[in-house]
């Protein structure tokens, strides 16, 4: 069985503990590889490798650094087919999604930040005739990147690429549930000759590897994507050392459909927003708010479309939803369906685990689920479920829609459907979220600020925001005298 090692100082390293964790294929429930069970000893080795590599990496020209990143981007593109298979196998997501979204975006992340760093400038301020100030943007040193299992390489590279472009050296940890593509990336970095120590990957759990990374005194910043509870723990651990933190956390995002929306588009995209990647994307629209005058018609058509979604083998090109990441996660999602019933919800379709025939008989599949009849403040409508479950909520007025949209602890994204331009502007401004889409969902431009408010996180990723996060501004004031 394949054993995935750490990548430290440009070398494959076994875990200091000598122990390995099983890697399970969610579509079959079978263990198909093992990954190093890292510990603080491995983190220490990775941090020292990164620290040693930092002076040379930071003093390279941006063009030289960009050159390495572009070679990595090209390498990912050249391996798209194989890496998409690996990502699909590791996560249970449809292969078609990994081919069209995950792996292309990972390549784009490197290409984007390679070119962005070439365009980045810093400010200068003239103080009358007395002085000129200019701002140096200096890399931080060693930074930690911790990513989740839902979009493994996509989010891993979304952090690593800007950190490296800005001149930092990285210690990174993919989710222990999905370590495969991060390991493939390490091999590619070795192949393109990325200097040893510039990128180090330590595998293992959050408590054994993530926490030692966060508290390590030589780690100057932590970029994390994952659950809100974990983000809160990381913030508490990092606070005594005043580390820079970028936390991209959960969401309970509203899709808001007004009666004046383009009906067909709103219908199709609200299904996609709820169920893409089995609902395991922090941006998924898990609360579907529909104007009361449209509600019954929209509900009927929405449920019909959801019943037409195909849950199946991720390798089948006709599959819309693959397996959930783990049996434990599926149990958690199903427990929310049970909770919804207790809270008075009606299951309009779905609600059960699914047993597929053949090679996927023991996979972690679940029916796409639509629930109505719940109060906006009940737990089902307040807590992140992170699975193929959407609740329908009718509203009567624009004010009520905004009220319900904002009535959760989260504030990541929203998708608003209306053809009334003035309303679109009003609602977008009033929603408490870092990202509002109007008449679309998850349309991404990598230059835009990405992140959430309230319990959805702190800071912004994307574009120059990410490059600013991974640098420290230093003002230099020079007198003309
Ligand atoms: N992008 C998102 O918004 C995501 C949200 N979630 C939410 O979080 C819930 C729990 O899922 P998990 O797999 O447990 O996600 P998680 O937030 O625990 O895991 C994300 C990453 O953080 C690491 N990690 C865990 N505990 C840590 C700690 N104390 N210090 C440092 N790193 C740590 C994990 O090993 C993984 O690499 C999900 O049910 C879902 O609701 C999960 C994954 C992604
Ligand atoms: O950057 C994007 O396009 C999407 C990011 C998605 C997440 O951060 C997530 O699902 O956790």
UniProtKB/TrEMBL annotation:
Keywords of this protein's UniProt record, alphabetized? NAD, Oxidoreductase
Q: Which residues form a coiled coil?
A: none
Which residues are named in the active-site annotation? 248
Q: GO: which molecular function terms? A: aminomuconate-semialdehyde dehydrogenase activity
Q: What is this protein called?
A: Aminomuconate-semialdehyde/2-hydroxymuconate-6-semialdehyde dehydrogenase
Q: Is the Flavoprotein keyword given for this protein?
A: no
Pfam families attached here?
Aldedh
Q: What class of enzyme is it?
A: oxidoreductase
What family does this belong to? Belongs to the aldehyde dehydrogenase family.
Q: Which InterPro entries match?
A: Ald_DH/histidinol_DH, Ald_DH_C, Ald_DH_CS_CYS, Ald_DH_CS_GLU, Ald_DH_N, Aldehyde_DH_dom
């Amino acid at each position: 069985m394949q054993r995935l090692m750490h990548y430290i100082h440009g070398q494959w390293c076994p875990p200091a503990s000598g122990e390995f964790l099983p890697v399970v294929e969610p579509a079959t429930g079978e263990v198909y590889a093992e990954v190093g069970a890292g510990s603080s000893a491995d983190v220490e080795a990775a941090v020292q490798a990164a620290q040693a590599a930092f002076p040379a990496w930071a003093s390279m020209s941006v063009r030289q650094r960009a050159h390495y990143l572009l070679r990595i981007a090209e390498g990912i593109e050249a391996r798209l087919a194989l890496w998409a298979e690996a990502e699909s196998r590791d996560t249970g997501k449809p292969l078609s999604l990994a081919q069209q979204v995950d792996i292309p975006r990972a390549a784009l992340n490197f290409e984007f930040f390679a070119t962005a760093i070439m365009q980045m400038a810093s400010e200068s301020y003239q103080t009358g005739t007395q002085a000129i100030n200019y701002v140096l943007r200096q890399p931080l040193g060693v930074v930690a990147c911790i990513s989740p299992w839902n979009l493994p390489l996509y989010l891993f590279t979304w952090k690593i690429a800007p950190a490296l472009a800005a001149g930092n050296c990285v210690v990174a940890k993919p989710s222990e549930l999905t370590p495969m593509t991060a390991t493939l990336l390490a091999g590619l970095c070795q192949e393109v000759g990325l200097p040893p120590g510039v990128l180090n990957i330590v595998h293992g759990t959050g408590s054994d590897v993530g926490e030692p990374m966060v508290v390590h005194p030589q780690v100057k910043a932590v970029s994390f994507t994952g659950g809100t509870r974990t983000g809160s723990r990381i913030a508490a651990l990092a606070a005594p050392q005043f580390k820079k933190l970028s936390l991209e956390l959960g969401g309970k995002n509203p899709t808001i459909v007004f009666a004046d929306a383009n009906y067909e588009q709103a219908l199709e995209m609200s299904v996609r927003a709820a169920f893409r990647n089995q609902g395991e994307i922090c941006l998924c629209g898990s609360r579907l708010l529909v104007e009361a005058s449209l509600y019954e018609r929209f509900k009927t058509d929405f449920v019909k479309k959801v019943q037409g979604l195909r849950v199946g083998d991720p390798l089948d090109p006709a599959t819309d939803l693959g397996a959930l990441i783990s049996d434990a996660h599926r149990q958690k999602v199903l427990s929310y369906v049970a909770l919804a019933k207790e809270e008075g919800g009606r299951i309009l379709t779905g609600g059960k685990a699914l047993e597929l025939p053949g090679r996927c008989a023991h996979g972690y599949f679940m029916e796409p689920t639509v629930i109505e009849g719940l109060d906006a403040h009940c737990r089902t409508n307040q807590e992140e479920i992170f699975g193929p479950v959407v609740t329908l909520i009718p509203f009567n007025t624009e004010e009520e829609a905004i009220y319900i949209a904002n009535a959760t602890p989260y504030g990541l994204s929203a998708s608003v459907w209306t053809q009334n331009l003035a309303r679109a502007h009003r609602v977008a401004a009033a929603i408490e979220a870092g990202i509002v889409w109007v008449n679309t969902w998850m349309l991404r431009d990598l230059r835009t600020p990405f992140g959430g408010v309230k319990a959805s996180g702190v800071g912004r990723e994307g574009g120059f925001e990410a490059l600013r996060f991974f640098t420290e501004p230093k003002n230099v004031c020079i007198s003309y005298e």
